[in-house]
Amino acid sequence: MNKKIVSLFTVILLVFVSAIPAFATSSNGMPLIGDSSYLLDDSELQILSDEIEKVSEEANMDITIITLDSLYGDTTEEAVKYWHDEMGYSQDSLMLLVSMEYNDVIVKSFGENGGDVFSESAVQDILDEVTPYLSMGDYYGAFNHYIDLASEYVYDANHFDFFMNILISLGVGLVVALIVVLIMKAQLKSVRFQSAAANYLKGDSLQVTEAYDHFLYRHVTRVAKPKVNSSSDGGHSASGKF
């Protein structure tokens, strides 16, 4: 990607954020919504910035939107990774990137936690839901729906973790209770079952004069080692046209 264009765009975003501090920014001060194609007016940008900031806080990761006039020769996958790094967004994050030149769109999650919350099916679902709005030229509707969908996946992930913690706590409690009961039960036994017969035999009453082993057969089962396919950044992506 053309470095001069990239640097100019970054400077514009920094000046834009400095001039209007009310707009949502990431932990490093960069905007969560980088609308370089001016698809939103100021009031729409303000509303969406407030909403995306709330979802980012709930998710404990950056939920972001980037609009570009062109990909400047990059693929959507290359562009979304580049802008994620260039803007310094959190390692765990989600980005919607829209390029106007050839109507390209991509939704990508980053990081291990980002990939867990926004799985392969989740980013595909978000793309499928957002694309019709983009096709109609309803960019505010598209971005608003994107934020709503991200919020739903974050809500589901947070509540899943909550219930899992409850189940784990209950499981630990049951295991501890079982151990205590077994210890108490063991203390009540005066006679215990013997796994071997030695204690039931009279001394020197059994003489073994000869012993040997017979090898009967061997059975070997071979299982193929599974192949693991994962993205190097731990996330998932879905892209298309609008």
In short:
By secondary structure, the chain is an alpha/beta fold.
Structure description:
The protein has 242 residues and is an alpha/beta fold. The protein is 48% helix and 12% strand. It has six helices and five strands; from the N terminus they run αβαβαββαααβ. α2 packs parallel to α6 and α5 packs antiparallel against α6. The chain starts with a helix and ends with a strand.
What's the N-to-C terminus distance?
A: 23 Å
Compute the CA-based radius of gyration.
30 Å
What overall form do the CA principal axes indicate?
Answer: elongated
- The count of strands amounts to 5
Helix/sheet category: alpha/beta
In spatial order, strands of the major sheet run 1-2-3-4-5
